[in-house]
Amino acid sequence: MQVGFEAKRLFTNFTGLGNYSRFIVNALSEFAPENTYILYSPKIKSHPEVDPILARPNTKAIGPTGGFTFFKSLWRSWGIRYNKSVADLAIFHGLSQELPVGLPKHVKKIVTVHDLIYIRYPQFYNPIDVAIYTAKVKSACRRADKVIAISQQTANDLIEFIKVDPGKIEVVYQGCHPIFKTKASADIRAAVKAKYNLPDKFILNVGTIEQRKNVKQLVEALALLPADVQLPVVIVGRATDYLKEVIACAQEKKVMDKITFIHKASFQDLPVIYQLATVFVYPSLFEGFGIPLIEAIESGVPVITSQGSCFREAAGPDALYTDPHNPQMLADALNHVLTDASVAEHVVRSSAAYIKRFEPAVIASDIMQVYRKA
Questions:
Q1: Angle between the 291-298 and 341-354 helix axes, to the nearest 10 degrees?
Q2: Span 178-357 CATH architecture
Q3: Contact predicate 11/43, CB 8 Å
Q4: What is the mean pLDDT of the chain?
Q5: I want to staple 347 with a disulfide (CB 3.0 to 4.6 A). Which of 2, 62, 224, 302 is the partner?
Q6: What confidence tens digit (pLDDT) does each residue in 92-108 have?
Q7: What InterPro entries does the database record attribute to this sequence (predicted)?
Q8: Distance between alpha carbon 227 and the CA centroid of its chain, in Å?
């Protein structure tokens, strides 16, 4: 069977959607090697994350040709259908909420939808972007034979907000990058600790510093901890204007001296930062899935996250959950983990068993089942 992918972000994005694209293609090419996988992308370029995928004999990339080399965006959304390879496809899978138009009728169309946060929380987005994203996902879901939601929460949102037929939706989770499975040596841990001037013990948060991620609640909870329990907080993520609110809160609560911001951590260093942490806190208001939770669990760190949304799907029944609007509840959970080693050990051990369902072999099997159903 030949499977095509809309794979722009596989080649151009080295965070969320790009990581998902590479994870899926890697998993399928390894665990369903009998198929041929064709990556359609307006840009095809070498990168250490991409080259091993293209080195596999069952995977190849195709870019625009002819006049479309000057109109690459048009080729991605409209011109792919003219490539002669499309006639031999059994499946075309849009990995990032989009499908090109005009694909042949015999080709079964699959689209992965990651989240509809821009519909649920439009106040966090530019109105024009909301309109564009909404139109694209509605069009893709209407034309798809099957819609893959990366969580039950996303499946519910598809049904609620854009009225997708529940019979078209299949929930298939995602896994994290394999780099998080490698345990760093003592020397590497020491080097990363020195590079970022990290404390011996600390509370970690990872994610863009924006309002939806709600890191200000962690600052408020830190201030509520008993003085002998307070640990430094390390916040890793790209800054937005919301950072000003976080800093103002930390200054007001008199805990600014306990907070370290790292805005440009190397992706290669990130697993080591996780492994050095004492506890991982993710107080986000809403996510499509919450990959940092799996990254933390893979790294052997106890997790505290929010109630609701998809968080229990990602972190499992044994992580600790708090109301994302209640800093005292978060402070109590932190106090519990930081003062009782048995609690932390239980969370780490049980959560590690839970996330085995996100292994590449499992995900590849689940994706292949969706293809067969289509």
A1: 110
A2: 3-Layer(aba) Sandwich (3.40)
A3: yes
A4: 95
A5: 302
A6: 999 999 999 999 999 99
A7: Glyco_trans_1, Glyco_trans_4-like_N
A8: 34
Which pLDDT score, from 0 to 100, does residue 357 have? Answer: 94
Residues 6+ apart with CB under 8 A from 112: 20, 24, 93, 94, 95, 96, 97, 147, 148, 149, 150, 172
Write the DSSP string, 291-353. HHHHHHHHTT--EEEESSTTHHHHH-TTSEEE-TT-HHHHHHHHHHHHH-HHHHHHHHHHHHH
Angstrom distances, CA of residue 132 to CA of 40, 42, 119, 153: 22, 20, 11, 22
End-to-end Cα separation, the chain, in angstroms: 13
* Residues 331, 233 contacting (CB under 8 angstroms): no
Q: Where in the chain is the domain with CATH 3.40.50.2000?
A: 2-175+359-373, 178-357
Q: What is the pLDDT of residues 302-348, one digit of tens each?
A: 999 999 889 999 999 999 999 999 999 999 999 999 999 999 999 99
Instruction: Give buried/exposed letters for 154-165 (b at 16+ CB in 10 A, else e).
Output: bbbbbeeebebe
Q: What Cα–Cα distance (Å) separates residue 273 from each residue in 19, 67, 196, 213?
A: 19, 47, 9, 19
Q: Which residues contact 167 (CB under 8 A, 6 or more apart)?
A: none
**Max CA distance (Å), the chain:** 68
Phi-psi region of 309 (alpha: psi -120 to 50; beta: other; left: phi over 0): left
Q: Does the predicted model carry a pTM greater than 0.85?
A: yes
Q: Is the pLDDT of residue 191 over 90?
A: yes
Q: How far apart are CA 111 and CA 270, in angstroms?
A: 30
How far apart are the C-alpha atoms of 300 and 275, rounded to whole Å?
7
Is 301's pLDDT higher than 80?
A: yes
Tokens of 338: 């930081």
- Give the integer Cα–Cα distance in Å for 17 and 23: 10
What CATH class does 2-175+359-373 carry? alpha beta
